[in-house]
Amino acid sequence: DAKTTQPPSMDCAEGRAANLPCNHSTISGNEYVYWYRQIHSQGPQYIIHGLKNNETNEMASLIITEDRKSSTLILPHATLRDTAVYYCIVRVDYGGSQGNLIFGKGTKLSVKP
Amino acid sequence: DSGVTQTPKHLITATGQRVTLRCSPRSGDLSVYWYQQSLDQGLQFLIHYYNGEERAKGNILERFSAQQFPDLHSELNLSSLELGDSALYFCASSLTLRREQFFGPGTRLTVL
Lengths: 113, 112
What we know:
Structural class of chain B: mainly beta
Largest sheet of chain B: 7 strands, mixed
Radius of gyration of chain A: 13 Å
Radius of gyration of chain B: 13 Å
Helix content of chain B: under 10%
Number of helices of chain A: 0
Number of strands of chain A: 9
Strand content of chain A: over 45%
Helix content of chain A: under 10%
Oligomer: heterodimer
Order of helices and strands of chain B: EEEEEEEEEEE
Shape of chain B: globular
Number of strands of chain B: 11
């Protein structure tokens, strides 16, 4: 079972920031938080990941709370093309990790004009 | 474009048949993962290969098998197909076990 909880759906106005929350209250110290998205039936797309520090790349920012029990993915200026299902995944990144991703149901983000 | 290619894009076949799905990972990636996405089960991990060796199995049926070849491409073989095997099949690749995965466009399998 997925170790994360996400709202099933969210709406966002085009041009505004989209803030997608994720709860991962049972996260272990060696587990990273990963975000992927899937546009319609395309292959999932990697967005960003982090351990405990906030991260930013060209696509998004990831804010992880100090206790690491929750995080927020921020799309700073959402466009219609950002409409997708967003998955928050926790994964061990070293040691005996198998590396596979466990997907939950994600959040369906609808960006509206 | 993730750099991961999958063929064919679409496959329509009948129950009881056998099919082979092919995946070419990004250049240099050693890990290949296979996932199945059906309407009722969501995205589920099937199997993982690293540099030619099987590393992990997920919810993969005994009728399904996979392999990774010396050139690192991978094939997923599905046999004795049933209606319930109709789904999108994705492969993903990563440089190592510990890096982000990049997904291919998928193969849509329809079993009639």
